[in-house]
Write a structure and sequence with these properties.
With 441 residues, the chain is α/β, with parallel strands linked by helices. The strands form three sheets. Strands 3-2-1-4-5-6-7-8 form an eight-stranded mixed β-sheet, with helices on both faces. Strands 10-9-13-14-15 form a five-stranded parallel β-sheet, covered by helices on one side. The protein has a two-stranded antiparallel sheet with strand order 11-12. The relative contact order is 0.08. The chain binds nicotinamide-adenine-dinucleotide. Nicotinamide-adenine-dinucleotide binds next to helix 5.
């Protein structure tokens, strides 16, 4: 749809978006929202972030970042230029031309979707919605959320989506810690409720994101994200099951995957590990499984993958028991040192990390657990407060066994192998080292 064919309510917004004079807003300034806000400000838009957390708001207003992938120098520059603002005040919504929603979408204890953050953010927007605004949901969620949950709330005041205001879904694909693929250069999939909604969303992102991919509806865009994450979950589960099989058959799974990767077509390597982590892969496929069940279709891959992946921390604990047993030691009273507690290497996020589950299991079995992580200075597991220590000779040689849970680049693996009596490496971080005390997953 070209600007000249847009309905008049949309034309003014389209012009503001192409001229970068629109006032854009982001609701939720976390791992997804802050990088997006910074890219919008970089594109030249006056950008205002809204968050319930006043500490985040104050940090941005001071010109500082709290997300490792976002440079403080960028936040400071855009604050100084008068292009980046943050507030806890919902009333600012009435001054915005566009609103991107980047709030959490976790699971309930029952493993059902918890849309309460999305609903409360949308209710806040609905209270201040005015004609001509564009609302885009970016939070990962099940197919149908934008149309079935978000739209009715926004239409409560009498405005109609696609006619009076505009609505789209565009999944966030950020990969924390990835320096090559950032918010700016990862293509953005956009599904508008109507062609006009899509055209406006594309115009918004065109300023800050290199490539925008149109799909025919919000539902398709929602499904795209869940296919991507389900693909990862299922393939990681396959790698984990092959690793369990190889452990049983005394085959080095890492060597197998490396050699299989030499095939130039038809194979893509996925790696086993101590369990899934982060806020996407362990959670999002279950959103899809839930919705599919409601719609009368029983999925099979998702549940099986979840079962295999969520069993990995227990496998690590059981294997640790066996390794101690081989040394004539009981796990109760043994000193176990954990290397890395974040859910993947070289990031600071320990939320949903498999390390937490492994530590919990080891503590439950009576082990004395310590840990080292250059990115996480303290951690509380099952009410027990722990502080990171340096993985020095004294710490490692006084432990009975060390487990590599996260393969941070900063660890000195040859030194770790030299000093710990046994190194249980769940990530192949010790690749290339040959020593009798290394045991790989
Ligand atoms: N972190 C990732 O790697 C990643 C990647 C892709 C997609 N996602 C998805 O993006 C969404 C956001 O994830 P995240 O990691 O940025 O979460 P986060 O927890 O880091 O940040 C969410 C922010 O939203 C704020 N918030 C919650 N409710 C609010 C409300 N009603 N009004 C204003 N602010 C509110 C919170 O205070 C928090 O600062 C989720 O749906 C997630 O699944 C995350």
């Amino acid at each position: 749809m070209t600007p000249s064919t847009l309905p008049t309510t949309a034309e003014a917004l389209h012009q503001k978006l192409t001229a970068r004079t629109a006032h854009v807003g982001i609701v939720g300034l976390g791992y997804v929202g802050l990088p997006l806000a910074v890219e919008m400000a970089r594109a030249g838009f006056k950008t205002t972030g809204i968050d319930l957390d006043h500490r985040k708001v104050e940090t941005i207003m001071r010109g500082e970042s709290y997300i490792p992938d976002v440079h403080t120098r960028d936040v400071a520059e855009f604050r100084q230029a008068g292009r980046l603002f943050a507030t806890t005040d919902p009333a600012v919504v009435s001054t915005l031309d566009t609103i991107n929603i980047c709030v959490p979408t976790p699971l309930r204890k029952t493993k059902d979707p918890d849309l309460s953050y999305v609903v409360s953010a949308v209710e806040m927007i609905a209270d201040h919605l005015h004609p001509g605004q564009l609302v885009i949901l970016e939070s990962t969620t099940y197919p149908g959320t934008t149309d079935e949950v978000v739209r009715p709330i926004l239409e409560r005041g009498g405005l109609v989506a696609g006619r009076d205001f505009f609505l789209a879904f565009s999944p966030e694909r950020v990969d924390p810690g990835n320096e090559k693929w950032t918010t700016r250069n990862v293509p953005k999939v956009v599904g508008g409720l109507t062609p006009t909604c899509s055209a406006l969303a594309r115009a918004l992102y065109a300023g800050s994101i290199e490539r925008v991919i149109d799909v025919s509806s919000p539902k398709v865009a929602e499904m795209v994200k869940l296919l991507e994450n389900t693909f990862r979950s299922v393939n990681i589960a396959l790698a984990n099951e092959i690793a369990l099989m190889c452990s049983h058959m005394k085959i080095n799974v890492w060597e197998v995957i490396k050699a299989a990767s030499s095939k130039p077509f038809g194979f893509m390597p996925f790696y086993p590990g101590p369990g899934l982590g982060g806020h996407c892969i362990p959670i999002d496929p279950l959103y899809l499984e839930w919705k599919s069940k409601i719609d009368g279709f029983e999925s099979r891959f998702i549940g099986l993958a979840d079962k295999i992946n969520s069993g990995m921390p227990r496998f690590v604990a059981t294997r640790t028991m066996e390794l101690l047993n081989e040394q004539g030691k009981a796990i109760r009273g043994s000193k176990i040192h954990i290397l890395g507690v974040t859910y993947k290497k070289d990031i600071s996020d320990s939320r949903e990390s498999p390390a937490i589950e492994v530590i919990k299991l080891l503590l439950g079995l009576g082990a004395e657990v310590s840990y080292s992580d250059p990115f996480v200075s303290s951690l509380t597991v099952d009410g027990q407060a722990m502080e990171s220590v340096q993985p020095c000779r004294e710490v490692l040689s006084s432990s009975d066994l060390a487990i590599v849970i996260t393969n941070h680049t900063a660890f000195n693996y040859p030194e770790i192998v030299k000093n710990a009596p046994v190194v249980f490496d769940t990530r192949n971080a010790t690749e290339g080292l040959t020593a009798k005390n290394i045991v790989r997953l």
